[in-house]
Automatic annotation (TrEMBL):
<dbReference type="Pfam" id="PF17919">
    <property type="entry name" value="RT_RNaseH_2"/>
</dbReference>
<dbReference type="Pfam" id="PF00078">
    <property type="entry name" value="RVT_1"/>
</dbReference>
<protein>
    <recommendedName>
        <fullName>ribonuclease H</fullName>
        <ecNumber>3.1.26.4</ecNumber>
    </recommendedName>
</protein>
<comment type="similarity">
    <text>Belongs to the beta type-B retroviral polymerase family. HERV class-II K(HML-2) pol subfamily.</text>
</comment>
<dbReference type="GO" id="GO:0004523">
    <property type="term" value="F:RNA-DNA hybrid ribonuclease activity"/>
</dbReference>
<dbReference type="InterPro" id="IPR021109">
    <property type="entry name" value="Peptidase_aspartic_dom_sf"/>
</dbReference>
<dbReference type="InterPro" id="IPR000477">
    <property type="entry name" value="RT_dom"/>
</dbReference>
<dbReference type="InterPro" id="IPR053134">
    <property type="entry name" value="RNA-dir_DNA_polymerase"/>
</dbReference>
<feature type="domain" description="Reverse transcriptase">
    <location>
        <begin position="174"/>
        <end position="353"/>
    </location>
</feature>
<dbReference type="InterPro" id="IPR041577">
    <property type="entry name" value="RT_RNaseH_2"/>
</dbReference>
<dbReference type="InterPro" id="IPR043128">
    <property type="entry name" value="Rev_trsase/Diguanyl_cyclase"/>
</dbReference>
<dbReference type="InterPro" id="IPR043502">
    <property type="entry name" value="DNA/RNA_pol_sf"/>
</dbReference>
Amino acid sequence: MDSDFVAQWSIPQQQLSPPVLVETIDGRPLHSGPVVAATRPLHMRIGLHMEEAVFYVATASHFPVVLGLEWLRAHDPQIIWSSGTVRFPGKKCATHHLDVCTGKVATPVDLDLPAELGDYADVFGEKEADQLPLHWSYDCPVYLVPDAKLPVGRIYSLSKPELAALRDFIDKNLRKGCIWPSTSPLAAPVLFVKKKSGELRLCCDYWKLNAITIRNQYPLPLIPELIERLRQAKIFTKLDLRGAYNLVRVRAEDEWKTAFRTRYGHFEYTVMPFGLTNAPGVFMHFMHDVFRDLLDKFVVIYLDDILIYSSSPREHLNQVRLVLQRLRDNHLFAKREKCQFAQTMIDFLGHRISPEGVEMDPEKVKSLQEWQPPWRVKDVQRLLGFANYYRTFIPRFATHTAPLSNLLRKGVKFRWGAEEQGALDILKAAFSSEPILKHPDLLRLFVVETDASDVAIGAVLLQAYAPAGTHVPIIHGSCRPPNGITRSGTRNCWRSKSLLRHGGTT
C-alpha cells in the first residue's frame, strides 16, 4: 500500500522488526529500501470476496494498493476478460499478508544494524550490491600514449589454492558480467595477494599497461589533513564500501585494454579493476562528487573509506542517515562487517582516533614489533616506508633512523651490523611506547621546542594542559639538515619554520 495513500486516509500502521526486503516483479529490490511498516489488519472486499489483510507500506506511486504474486498464487482468482470481472473459485480465504509490488518476499533482514538505521538495510545488502553498474559519466577511461607498443605479459605460476580461487573468481564475475571473454591484443598476468581475513584477492599485474597510460592527475586527499578535520569530534561512524572500484564501469571503448590472461582463458573487465594507474583518481573524483556538499562538514573520505564525525549523538544519527541515503541514491553499498556505528574511538587509515587525540593503530605497531632484520636494500626501503607513515608520532625520528637511511645512499654497500640493529631496536621501542598526539586547541598557547645536530634536526609542537600546565605533544617533526645549513641556531630556526608550515612532514 502506498505510503501517501496510508497517510491521506490515516490508516493505522505497525512497525516491522526486523525490516523486510521486498522485490519487484523483475526481481529487483524496491528502490525505497526495506519495508519497515505495515498496516494494522484491514477488511478488504473485492466484489463478493472478503478477507482480513495486512499490507506492507512502501512507496508505490503508480497505484495506491498492489496485490502481489504471493497473494495471487494463494487465491488463484479467475479473470473474466469479456466482462472485466474477477471470480474467486475457493471458499472465503483465510487471512493473508499481502505483498506490495512483489514477485516474492525475501527473508527478513538481520544485519545487526542499529535500530534507528533499520530502514537502510538495503544499503548493506550483498544481493543488491551484486548488480553490474550502468555506464555513466564516471566511467574509467584508459588513454594510451600514441604509438606505444601494446604489452603482453607471461602467465604466472599459481599454487593449488590460488588456482581454485582463480576459477571461483572467473565463474563468479562472468556470471555477474564484470568480466567477459576477450580477443584483445593486450594481456596482463594475474597474481594473488592475501587479505587481512586470509582470503585471496586476484590482482592483475598492469605495470606494463600503466607505463604507457596517460596519467589522471586527480589528487588523493592528504591523510594528515583528513585527521586534522576530526579534532573537535566526539562520535564517529565508519563505512566501508562493498565492491569499491567495481562500482565504476570501464569506458566501453577501453574495456579491451584491461585484458588479462590466465590458465583458464583470456578475459577483459567491464568494471574498473584494482591495479590500473588511474583507478584511484577516477574513484576519488566520483566519491568527491557524490559527497561534495558534505565534505569537511561531517564527512571525510579516502577512496572507499567513509568517516562520519559529529559532536553529539542526536546530530550524528541525522548525519549518518543523510550519508546512507546518499549511498542509496547513487547505488553504492557498504560492507556491514567492516562498518562501525556511533563509536567514541575508531580506527581510520592506520590511526586510532578519539576525542582525546590520535594514536597509531595497534595492529600496525604490532607488525613493526615483528619486523625481522633486513637482509637487502629493498627490505630497508619497505621498513622505512612503513615507519615514515608514523614519523609525526616519534620524537627525533630522523636521528633514530639515520643508520638505516644511510644504507639507501648511492654507492653504499649493504651491511647490517650492530649500529643498524640498534637503530631498529630503538625504532621498535619508540613505537611500543604508545605515543598519543593531542588534538590541537586553537584557543590555547602553542610552544615549539627544537633540537639540532650534525645528524638531524628535530622539533615538537606542544600545548599546555592540566595538571600543572603539563606540555603535551601535538606533532613531532625531524629531518636531515639541508646542505649549507651548518650553524645550530640556523638549523633550529629552519626546522621550527618547517614544522609550522608542513606539519612535521618535511
